[in-house]
Design brief:
The chain is α/β, with parallel strands linked by helices. It contains 16 helices and 16 strands. β12, α14 and β13 form a beta-alpha-beta unit.
Length: 452
């Protein structure tokens, strides 16, 4: 099947061609016809399946055919990073159509709030917003939303996890009763079903395989004590210049600064991103990483779902995430768009039971590699046992020196390990990602975005 088979306008097809979009992914092939018919839809699909284009393309096509000029579509996203990502993709798809959009999220200045107010009152065709920021505008009673036709929730499960359920219900009460509702979620727990019943009308369902990791990801793990993690990072990353783009995830915001500080002491090019940074600071760090001016990005799960950066050579889980789904989203940052990549996890005593749950979820046992000799043995992997969970707080750092060569394409201290490398490119030229209401940038060769 080709995109031309969806009966998109010529301008839409021009944009898709300019962005090197050729064939639809499974979620696009299934969801787009339902959305075109005007039916409500619930789609269960992970990051990396092409879900964003699955709802943007048919909606933009509808807007262009109707002529636009009014607030037609509202998209809610859990984080400002995801809101910006969706808006950036929308700019590329709609470059030849004249459709207008804006991303609305917190953390900006008074001038940015005014730009948002202008878009909401003068009728941007499409709004991408975080729930809290949008409610701030709605409560001021000036938002012209009476002609809205489409209400879209992206990553609905994450919004529920972040406590936005009441906000979503409040926002839906402001909207016209007659509208098309579209929900995308990586998982479908009971709370999502309940939300769907409350705001949707007999939705059709699209289910793409969930809670599994991409085939191109080589997944490996090390059993480590806390004090062995930084030496292990040094061993894995130092002088390995073929690994040019690395993300290190940690579950605790307090760890971000500590990891960055320790890596910089080792003369490694690293920076952190967390909710402690201002919006401008966060955007600058991400621009540097996207443009390959920063080698190592350290962050919490805030960047595991809503960041559009391809060509990631390696993802490292500094600790085991408590939620198995977060693991899926973390490692999904690599091996995107049918490429390959590597995901390593450091399992300390506290994380063994959580890692066992992850293996159950992804239906595979992740290979545990031995620590390099100079780092010493880590805790024995015995999930569920008291010894495995917290047998030691310190590792043995007195082992004899015998560092093995880390070779991305052949071994990770073990010749049997599989390899991974990425070869996709990303649009690294954008210098202004927020508050541009009507100006647009030309579409670029961004076929990799089809997998977001």
């Amino acid at each position: 099947m080709k995109f031309k088979d969806f009966d998109f306008t010529e301008e839409m097809l021009q944009g898709l061609n300019a962005m090197s979009f050729e064939e639809p992914t499974p979620v696009q092939e299934q969801a787009i016809p339902i959305i075109q018919k005007g039916n409500d839809v619930i789609a269960v699909a992970q990051t990396g399946t092409g879900k964003t284009a699955a709802f943007l393309l048919p909606i933009l096509n509808k807007i262009q055919r109707s002529g636009g000029g009014k607030l037609n579509t509202l998209i809610l996203a859990p984080t400002r990073e995801l809101a910006m990502q969706i808006d950036q993709q929308m700019e590329g798809f709609s470059y030849f159509t004249g459709t207008s959009s804006i991303a609305i999220y917190g953390g900006g200045t008074g001038s940015s709030f005014e730009a948002e107010r202008l878009a909401l009152t003068q009728g941007a065709d499409l709004i991408v917003a975080t729930p809290g920021r949008l409610l701030s505008h709605l409560n001021l009673k000036y938002v012209k939303i009476n002609q809205l036709e489409h209400f879209i929730l992206d990553e609905a499960d994450r919004m529920m996890d972040m406590g936005f359920s009441d906000d979503i219900q409040k926002i839906s009460e402001y909207l016209p009763k007659k509208r098309q509702n579209i929900m995308f979620s990586a998982t479908m727990p009971p709370k999502i079903r309940n939300l769907a019943k409350a705001i949707m009308n007999e939705p059709e369902e699209v289910n793409i395989a969930i809670s599994i990791t991409a085939e191109g990801i080589t997944q490996l793990a090390y059993n480590t004590h806390d004090n062995q993690k930084i030496p292990l990072l040094q061993h894995l990353l130092k002088d390995k210049q073929d690994l040019s783009s690395i993300i290190i995830f940690t579950s605790r915001k307090s760890n971000v600064k500590d990891i960055v500080r320790d890596l910089k002491k080792l003369k490694m090019d690293a920076a952190g991103i967390s909710s402690d940074l201002s919006q401008d600071e966060r955007e600058e760090v991400l621009r540097m990483f996207r443009n390959k001016r920063l080698r190592i990005l350290v962050g919490t799960d805030i960047i595991s779902r809503g960041i559009d950066i391809d060509s990631i050579d390696m993802v490292i889980n500094y600790d085991v995430p408590n939620d198995p789904e977060d693991y899926v989203h973390r490692v999904g940052r690599t091996a995107r768009a049918k490429s390959t990549g590597t995901a390593l996890t450091f399992i300390d005593g506290r994380g063994q039971q959580d890692f066992q749950k992850i293996e159950e979820l992804i239906k595979m046992e992740v290979e545990k590699l031995p620590n390099p000799e100079h780092i010493g043995e880590g805790p024995t992997y015995k999930p569920g046992s008291s010894r495995g969970r917290n047998s030691h707080s310190r590792g043995n750092n007195n082992a004899s020196s015998g560092r093995k060569t880390f070779n991305k394409k052949k071994t990770f201290d073990k010749e049997k390990s599989k390899s991974g490398e990425t070869n996709t490119n990303t649009d690294a030229t954008k210098t202004e990602v927020k508050k541009k209401f009507y100006p647009k940038r030309p579409p670029t060769q961004t076929g990799h975005l089809q997998k977001d």
